[in-house]
Amino acid sequence: MKRYRSKKEQDQTILRTATNYLLPVLLLFSVFVLLRGHYLSGGGFVGGLIASIAFVLHSFAYSTKQTLSLFQFSPMALIPAGLALSILSGLLPVLLGLPFMTGVWFADSVAVIGSVGTALFFDIGVYLVVIGVVLTILFTIAENV
Amino acid sequence: MISNFILAPIFAHMFTAVLLMFFWKRVQAQKIISIIGNSIAFIMCWRLFSATWKYGNITLQLGGWEAPFGITFVSDTLSAVMVLLTAIVSLSVGIYSTSAINISRIKYGYFFIYHFLIMGLMGAFLTGDIFNLYVWFEVVIISSFVLLTLGGKKRQMEGAVKYVTMNMLASVIFLTAIGILYGITGSLNIADLANQVAIIENRGLVTVTSLLFFVGFGIKSAVFPLYFWLPSSYHTPPSAIGAIFGGLLTKMGVYSLFRVFTIIFKPDDFILQVFIVIAILTMISGAFGVINKRNIRRILSYFIVCHIGYLIAGIGLYTELAFVGVIFYLIHDVIVKSNLFMMSGLIQKIRETQDITRLGGLYKDYPKLSLIFAVILFSLVGIPPLSGFWPKIMLFQEAFVQKQYVLLGTLIFASFITLFIVARIWSEVFWKDLLKPNSEEIDHFAPFSKSGKIALILPITALAGVSLYIGLNAPVIIEVSERVAHEMKNPSIYIDAVMKNLK
């Protein structure tokens, strides 16, 4: 049994080494897709999926437990946080007397990110919710199998 | 009038749901947050109703996109009435749930899903966009799937399979109908659709599309012939969930029928005839279904089917007075049906069974409670001063004036069966002596803490009070119903509110 496990670990050396480099790259890519999303294809939903794929890959290479230990908190906590962020970004124009979900933008655009407005925060909220939901579902299934 | 306030009822529940997620496993905190959230939402809904009553239709263009393109939210009197009813029921059932739902269900997110369900209902009643209506329907049915299966008993799963299958089918048909409508008009805004559909020359296609809508909404509101999913699933979840389902979910389908067939389509004689025939068959199948049932909640499920027939009959008559009757009946029915399900839950707590032949002696053991139950049961039948009486009289009268004698006969027949079954429940459950000695029956209600008992009884009493109010202050309700009926007969009020109120 012990020999089998060590063999399995040996088999995974390549995957693990690759994952160590792929995880940050995938996360960076997911942020890129998120920011790109306003005018081009991409956005919070796709970005969130890519980010969760990064963690799923990590959980394949190591184990669900070790992946969860990358988080300081349960991924489930991302769901309400993301939802709250999305709703609040929709509510901001209401405070300014505009209809709900009207896009409100800063006059100056920020370097790299581009123009910053409520739509971006809404998308970040979606991004967080997607990561939270996907990881919660997958890890719950992984624990029960 | 344009106002962001129209979204307040939706947000009140959305915020409550999000807040509940932060307190995932803390049961006590969840109960308190849920009650506070429900109360705030109730106040919002009341204010929305009074604002709509005072200032006329309130509209909002989401994100500032103009009418036929953006998503519209409209609160006309019908929407405001439905929202207010939802708020009343959700507050009562929310309080009832804190004591009636067991802790493990709350730990798996009962209240969270509950608020999402109510949010979906609010959204469905307030939206003025047909595709957005579909989205809210999905929010509601996905939440209801979770509520139906929460707890994971075998019986629940069996009910859920039927429920999910039929509702998915209904959604597909509804979506197909929207697709066709979009294909022939190029619009999704309900007010804009009304204008576009009126000028289409291919009337055959319009009729077919309207019938597709009727089938889709018909399955959801459990009309003949596709009603069987309702009696086979509604008795499986806990009674608090049954109260929300029985009171509000089928009424959402009826509400959508009102919207689609008063604003978008002008039904011709053929469609009206279809409505009346379906209504008659629904009432008869519901009435026959109810006769041989012994479980209280199964009886209630068939009552829902039977009484949906009244509402469909009202649309089939398509006169202003019939609409007054239908809206009055809707208001009465939502309150009473929810309350009956809560009552059945309380009876189960007291006697641990819902089989009316095994129950008995409730009047002897709990006389005051039985009086409240009597008010609820006899409101359902419509014994004269109570709430069911007035709308039934209006419907009878209108069916007679319109010379729909078969319909009139069926309405009276269905009322008679309701009376017969309610009388039987009363005599079996309340008057009859218990077959077994009392000590053998397990009373789960007596050991409850005082606050637990109040949480169970207060909502039932409050809703019974609302029923009494509806019955005794009928002129007020008739005034509201008349205004709704007037708006339903004159859809230009709704259309103008959306199309001409651009900023």
UniProtKB/TrEMBL annotation, chain A:
It is a multi-pass membrane protein. This is Multisubunit sodium/proton antiporter MrpB subunit. The keyword Hydrolase does not apply. Residues 14-136 form the Na+/H+ antiporter MnhB subunit-related protein domain. It is found in: Cell membrane. GO terms for cellular component: plasma membrane. Keywords: Cell membrane, Membrane, Transmembrane, Transmembrane helix.
From TrEMBL, chain B:
The keyword Cell membrane applies. The chain crosses the membrane at residues 6-24, 31-49, 69-96, 108-127, 133-151, 163-184, 204-228, 240-258, 270-291, 303-331, 371-393, 405-426, 454-478. One of its GO terms (biological process) is ATP synthesis coupled electron transport. Signal peptide: none annotated. Residues 129-418 form the NADH:quinone oxidoreductase/Mrp antiporter transmembrane domain. GO terms for molecular function: NADH dehydrogenase (ubiquinone) activity. The keyword Membrane applies. Keywords: Cell membrane, Membrane, Transmembrane, Transmembrane helix. InterPro entries: CPA3_Na-H_Antiporter_D, NADH_UbQ_OxRdtase, ND/Mrp_TM. It is found in: Cell membrane; Membrane. It is a multi-pass membrane protein. Its main location: membrane. It comes from the Bacteria. GO terms for cellular component: plasma membrane. Belongs to the CPA3 antiporters (TC 2.A.63) subunit D family. This is Multisubunit sodium/proton antiporter MrpD subunit.
